[in-house]
Amino acid sequence: MKTCFFLLVFLISSIIFSQNNHIVTTEDGRRVLLKADFTWEYIDVDSTSTTSITNPSKSTSCNLAKDFEEPKLDNKIQAQLKRGRATISHVKKKVAKDYNCSVDDVLLLSVSETKKNGNYNFCANGTKVAYKRIGNSIVKKVKLF
Predict the structure, then answer these.
(1) With contact defined as beta carbons under 8 Å apart, do 53 and 104 qualify?
(2) What is the CA 133 to chain-centroid distance, rounded?
(3) Which residue(s) pair with 23 in the sheet?
(4) Are 134 and 116 spatial neighbours (Cβ–Cβ below 8 Å)?
(5) Are residues 96 and 66 in the same domain?
(6) Do residue 31 and residue 93 come from a single domain?
(7) What is the mean pLDDT of residues 47-73?
(8) Which residue in 66, 101, 71, 63 sits closest to 88, CA to CA?
(9) Alpha-carbon dihedral sign for residues 29, 42, 93, 78
(10) Residues 6 or more apart in contact with residue 145 via CB below 8 angstroms
(11) Residue 127 belongs to a domain
């Protein structure tokens, strides 16, 4: 009997703690974050207040020299990453998609890569961004603290 009681308590408590936030889209296309504490907020900011997209080679926020050239990458590592679609061209496509710009507007500033993982710093739309690759997965690098 005790085992059944503790199992029931554990099941109920896990259901309570497993509540999660949900993102939904309204009829007019805006995204809303529904929180577990029954509050909500808009995720997307009104697009009329955004600034225009600029070419990073002409932008001053990345502070690039006029004769800047992208670093050369190891051809052996890039050939191995081609199978998993994780080459530098694939990473640049992901950055361009995330920052709503063309692949030509994404400049590689620095790179540190091995066959297993890699760290990439880009200038996209005049903004310095960092991405990391673990295996064939490419994600944006975030700062925790």
Answers:
(1) no
(2) 11
(3) 33
(4) yes
(5) yes
(6) no
(7) 63
(8) 71
(9) negative
(10) none
(11) yes
Mean pLDDT of 99-127: 89
For the residues 88-101, what does the mean pLDDT come to? 90
When divided into structural domains, the chain yields a total of: 2
Q: Which domain holds residue 27?
A: 20-48
Helical H segments across the chain, by residue range: 2-17, 75-81, 88-98
In-domain check, residue 71 = yes
Residue 57: pLDDT over 60: no
Amino acid at 145: F
| Contact between residue 102 and residue 121 where contact means Cβ atoms under 8 Å apart | no
- DSSP string across 44-66: SPPGGGSPPP--TTT-SSS---T
Q: What is the pLDDT of residue 17?
A: 62
- Same domain for 26 and 94, yes or no, is no
- Of the candidates 137, 133, 101, the one whose C-alpha atom is nearest the C-alpha of residue 117 is 133
Please state the φ and ψ torsions of residue 28, each to the nearest 5 degrees. -90, 5
